[in-house]
Amino acid sequence: MSLVIEGIREAIEFVEELSETVLVGSALEVGSRLAEETPVDTGFAKNSWLVTNSPDDPGEPGENSINTQKLRGFEIGDTIYINNGCDYIKPLNDGHSRKAPAGMTVKVMPEVKSIINGQIADAERSGR
User: Which of 114, 104, 106 is nearest to 38 (CA)?
Assistant: First the structure.
């Protein structure tokens, strides 16, 4: 009986690890895609995207924080935040720029399902 319980525990740990890998990878990729779609004049808005699991970490606009460092300690059940502290990001997203009249989120949000599916496939291939 204890072998069965140990097998179940290992399976749960594997699913949790796979889920964490997929969620973190997906959030980072969505953040990167938002940065890619952000129109560039000075680069300030593009470099102000922040991916973090801390609601108390607003980041520093212009710091370019699309990396795993801000997600250390992420666990299943935590919330991942993708923010932009640039004071003019809303007008940019609303289509203010001729370089990106549709805005960033309108272009990236339909990609989220595909991004997640890609992260799942990558995680399965690498055995994470």
Answer: 104
What are φ and ψ of residue 95, in 5° steps?
A: 100, 20
**Predicted pLDDT of residue 3:** 67
Best CA proximity match to 74, nearest among 115, 119, 24: 24
Tell me which H or E stretch contains 51: strand 49-52
φ, ψ at 57 (rounded to 5°): -110, 90
Query: Which comes out higher in pLDDT, residue 15 or 123?
Result: 123
Query: How many of the other CB atoms lie within 10 Å of CB of 40?
Result: 14
- Please give the single-letter amino acid code of residue 61: P
- C-alpha distance across the termini of the chain, in Å: 27
Write out the H or E segment, with its range, that includes residue 52: strand 49-52
The sign of the torsion formed by the CA atoms of 89, 93, 96, 100 equals positive
Asked if 65 and 52 touch (Cβ cutoff 8 Å), the reply is yes
